[in-house]
Design a protein that fits this description.
The structure holds 2 protein chains of 2 kinds. Chain A is of the alpha+beta class. Chain A has 14 helices and 10 strands. In chain B, 26% of the residues are buried. A two-stranded antiparallel sheet of chain B has the order 1-2. By secondary structure, chain B is mainly alpha-helical. In chain B, α7 (128-150) packs antiparallel against α8. The chains are: A alpha+beta, B mainly alpha.
Chain lengths: 389, 178
């Protein structure tokens, strides 16, 4: 329905870009948001080390141009100039042949929400006002937000636990942009950011984990408290202030100053196996001590998802989380994790609307969501492995 | 000064902005904690950072500062972007890179509180800090040029424009010769 979003072939960019309607500019093979809709996105591929519990790895860098006020203080003309400078720098990347460049203000509400659901832009970026943009890699391995809280927010995502590779990629993108612009950098304080909580490396390393057994056994709070003691933050599925939907949690560094990027990455990297181990122990405990209850819970969740006629996004997330654990524990045998990861994304409000191609109100969405789940969990015909054993 | 809720000395001085009217609160540690935990339910945009920051601020400002000293620090203005420290305290966001230099006195304890460190370790841009500082001057020069034009002081505006161009060109040269 919103066919105006096209990829800008990177090698075609030049400073003579027409200043308006830039996101409409396209040439040759075009990539648009609808192409993204059909794919699951890099971070939900469901592969990589420990991918039953570790969903994805993500690193973001906050950068600012030295010669402009920070975004909050920038006048409209400044914001436009910042966007222009950074757009040229980002689209000048050699391997950026399939970059989708979007001016966020041109998007409909559904499209913005769609990008938030895919973790390609932040909620803040979706909801704020004024000139701002995002460049998205066709494979969704990285995205670059322009004029978010900082002039530039680069993020790279990978499926599973893969922080070193993620760092190598993001550092390369950072180097490229740096070769074209002058970053705000202080001899003592490092990269300068609009909020002092990000100053120094400007880096946030985060790993998304699926921890249903720790939630069920009520140990999750204990884990959080011990993480906070070593200054790691725990956030929900959609970052700062968001609810931990479906037992998904993001663990990330809180400190950005006084420790090198390698150090910060290592801290998160080292703690993940410990949490994964706790989660596995909790799962083993549940299997051993309350096998029937667990099996019942998982099977009921699966049953509801396959038969419901109307279902909210929250309930879906909650039930998919149980089913996901059931698959990992062999309690459900006719489902694959990537299918579930895909459902997690595509049953969210904006995704549903993109898939059906019409705007739906909340109650119509619930009906459509149930229909989508039934058709993808072959609930109407085949029987399931869970009940056969 | 006494705490507004009990007889203990007020060590926390909090300025709340309610519909644009600043409201001063002077509280002891215990009541400040209670107040901050009540007033930070997480719906405050954007998320918890602003709330956490307010808390950090309150703790920082507590260290033996009188309301007069606070007021003095609050009114300090950044010559480059024009924000006051009070603006930063109420928004939780700085106005430009130079704020880190001109509000250093106020920011250092805050940064230490957030990060436990005050010196960056790790990656640095090849151009270094000096290039950045020079570039940041442009913010001020552009602002002054705009003001000069508004005041119809075209001679001054012209001079400023030349200075701006010179800095920009020097930079271009450096970038392309890399």
């Amino acid at each position: 329905m919103h066919s105006t979003l096209r990829a800008v072939p990177a090698n075609r960019t030049c400073p003579l870009f027409p200043p308006e309607k830039r996101s409409h500019y396209h040439q040759g093979a075009a990539l648009d948001l609808n192409d993204l809709t059909r794919n699951p996105g890099q971070w939900l591929r469901g592969s990589g080390p420990e991918s039953d519990i570790v969903i994805s790895s993500r690193i973001r860098l906050a950068r600012n141009l030295a010669d402009f006020p920070f975004v909050g203080q920038a006048a409209e003309a400044d914001r436009r100039r910042i966007e222009e400078v950074l757009k040229n720098a980002v689209l000048g990347m050699e391997d950026a042949s399939r970059l989708l460049y979007i001016e966020v203000d041109d998007l409909t509400g559904v499209d913005r929400q769609f990008l938030v659901e895919r973790h390609l832009i932040s909620r803040e970026h979706a909801e704020s006002q004024g000139v701002r943009a995002v460049a998205i890699d066709g494979g969704e391995r990285f995205s670059v937000m322009i004029n978010e809280e900082d002039h530039l927010r680069i993020q790279v995502m990978q499926s599973g636990l893969s922080l070193d590779e993620t760092w190598a990629q993001i550092s390369q993108i950072d180097d490229h942009v740096e070769s074209k612009v002058t970053y705000a950098f202080h001899e003592k304080l490092g990269y300068l950011t609009a909020c002092p909580t990000n100053v120094g490396t400007g880096m946030r390393v985060s790993v998304m984990l699926h921890l249903p057994a720790l939630v069920l056994t009520r140990q999750i709070e204990k884990v959080f408290r011990s993480l906070q003691k070593i200054s790691l933050a725990v956030r929900g599925l959609y970052g700062e202030g968001s609810q931990a939907m479906g037992d998904f949690y993001q663990i990330s560094n809180q400190v950005t100053l006084g420790r090198s990027e390698a150090d910060l990455i290592k801290q998160v990297h080292d703690i993940v196996p410990v949490i994964v181990d706790y989660e596995r122990q909790a799962r083993e405990f549940l299997i051993k001590e309350s096998h029937e209850n667990l099996h019942d819970r998982v099977s009921r969740a699966y049953g509801i998802l396959r038969t419901a006629q109307t279902i909210s996004s929250e309930e879906t997330m909650h039930l998919l989380s149980s089913v996901r654990m059931g698959v990992n524990l062999g309690l459900i045998r006719d489902l694959e994790i990537p299918v579930l990861n895909d459902l997690l994304l595509k049953t969210q409000p904006a995704h549903l609307q993109k898939l059906t191609g019409v705007e739906l109100d909340s109650s119509d969405r619930n009906i459509e969501r149930a229909r989508y789940l039934r058709s993808h969990l072959h609930g109407d015909s085949k029987d399931d492995g869970a009940e056969k054993n | 000064m006494k705490c507004q809720k009990c007889d203990k000395p007020a060590t926390f001085h909090i300025t709340e902005l309610a519909e644009g009217n600043p409201q001063e609160l002077h509280l002891c540690e215990e009541h400040a904690r209670e107040y901050l935990s009540q007033s930070t339910p997480g719906q405050i945009e954007p998320g918890n950072v602003a709330a956490a920051l307010a808390q950090q601020m309150a703790q920082q400002m507590a260290v033996g500062q009188t309301a007069e000293e606070l007021a003095r620090l609050d009114q300090q203005v950044c010559p480059v972007c024009g924000i006051t420290f009070y603006d930063f305290r109420s928004q939780g966001r700085l106005g430009c890179p130079h704020d880190y230099t001109c509000f250093e006195e106020q920011l250092t304890p805050l940064i230490l509180n957030i990060h436990g460190e005050t010196e960056h370790v790790g990656k640095a841009p090849r151009a270094g800090a000096q290039a950045s500082q020079q570039r940041t001057q442009l913010i001020q020069l552009r602002r002054e040029m705009k003001e000069a034009i508004a005041e119809e002081d075209y001679e001054r505006a012209g001079k400023l424009r030349d200075t701006i161009r010179r800095i920009e060109e020097e930079d271009e040269l450096k970038k392309t010769s890399d």
